[in-house]
What does this fold into?
Amino acid sequence: MAENKTKQTDQSPEDFINSIENETRRADGLTLLSLMRKITGEPAVMWGPSIIGFGTYHYRYDSGQEGTWMLTGFSPRKANLVLYIMPGFSDYERLLVCLGKYKTGKSCLYINRLSDIDMTVLEELVALSFSHMRQKYAD
It folds into this structure.
């Protein structure tokens, strides 16, 4: 059974963000760090070398594979900001229409810079998805 390669580390999220060379990406990372702390009430934790997560849940697939993952998080990558909206986007179409310029993957929201989007809509999206995951995986 494959084990999740990305795990929590002791690295400081602030140190990681402050090491980002691109000034805009660094500023956006600090903004997201503050925003997600406020929304989730959870401490920021590094997952692997470049993902900052908030909260955790335990999952188990029908295949028997199980593990622990973050309830929400983000990664300030070179190409874009990636926000992890773990339930996906099918329940949030009304918000996405108002969000601004973005792309999505299965559970990833790709944003070039925070100035491209409506921050109020982003806050609501993160809050709803975090709440959904917390309720779904409540002990």
